[in-house]
Each structure stands twice: as C-alpha cells, then as structure tokens.
Amino acid sequence: MSAGTYTPRPGAAPLSRMIAAQAALETRMLLRNGEQLLLTVIIPTLLLVLFSSVDIVDTGTDEPVDFLTPGVLALAVMSTAFTGQAIATGFERRYGVLKRLGASPLPRWGLMAAKTLSVLVTEVLQVALLTVIALALGWSPGGSPAAVLLLLLLGTVAFSGLGLLMAGTLKAEATLAAANLVFLLLLVGGGVVVPLDRFPDAARSVLELLPVSALSGGLRDVLQHGSGLPWGDVGILAAWAVLGLGAAARFFRWE
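RESULT FIELD:
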C-alpha cells in the first residue's frame, strides 16, 4: 500500500461535480414529494386522459387530443418550473436551507443552476410520459422538433424566473397559496384546455400575453397545425424570461 493512500484532501469538489450532485438531490426530493408529484405528473395526466376521452369542452377539433396535448405539455412545464419550484424554494428559504447552502462551497448561482437542471430533468420525464399517453390516445403530432424544444426551453426559463421571484420575496405560506392559485387560474384562462377564442375579445387580448398562453399556443401551432416557429409566442416567452430572471436576481432574498 503506497504512502498517503488515506491522506485527507481538504477543499471543495470541482464545481461541475457539486452542481451535478445538488441537481440529483433536488430531483430525488422533487419526485419523492407527494404534492409535487401531484402537480407535475398526476394532474396533467388526468387532464389529458379525461378531456380527450370525454366531451367536456368543445375544442373545435375532430380529435380533442390534438388540441389538448400541446396545452397539457405547457401545463406540465408550468407546474414544475413555476408552481413546484416556487413552493419548494419558498419553504427551503423559510427553514434556513438556502442560507446554509449559500454558506457551502457551492456558489449561489451554482445552486440556482442545480435547481434549473433538476427542473429540466423532471420535464424530460413529464414530456416523455405525456407523449406516450397522447400517442396511445390517437395523437398525431406534426411540425419541427427543434421549434418544440425551443418553446419548451423558453417556457421553462420564463416560469423558473417567475417561480424564484415569488419564492424569494414572499413568505412560504403566501408562496404556497399564491402559486397554487396562479396554477388554477392559468389552467382555466391560459388556453390549456379551454380555447382562448371562447373568451371575450378584451379578455383574450390580455390572456394571450400570459406565458402559459404563449407556450400552449406556440406548441399548438407547431404540433397541431405544422406551422414554423411562432415568432410572436417566442417573443412573449423571451420577454417573460428576461423580466422574471431579472426581477428574481434583483429581489431574491436568501433569508
């Protein structure tokens, strides 16, 4: 046995390894949390199956699943990047977890990067599951996969910034209530399962500017109608991403 085999090596691990380890921990915690699992997996799946199988809402299409799947994919992104992340981060801040992690060798931006990676991993699992279910229900997607990927990434960034802004400025209980309320309101008024043309013109013009409306509408243009990249929806999502992340960076409180 060579000398120094068990010699301690003080110091932090490489940054990439710290971020990967924290992202893996965040993902395991998210998937083991019953409330988070309800938001991220069960509710979108039930909505897709129920509204595709039962004529509850007139989607204006012969195959409701073609209309519903893009909206449910947008809902899945919102549930993970916004609602789930806001609630989890808000309670981590309340219990001092963020304060302690902020004092670790992992820099604060590295912690945010790990949370973002965790969100992306969860979304990959969500999209894969919902896609398999939708295909089993008769979904026939079209359009460019690259356009779909860009819309999902922009939606993730936009919702993530808004979720971190809420978690970093409100108390944990207020974040819990507000995040769930926003989730329900956008589920109804964000073009997820109810077409926006069912709303009055004045309300529709406002609803179309919401990030979930832009994401669901953009995905629907590509996947249902086979359109190219919907630049209007891309611009709305990019604007929300810049505003959300900028505000989160400016106002987020770690304690």
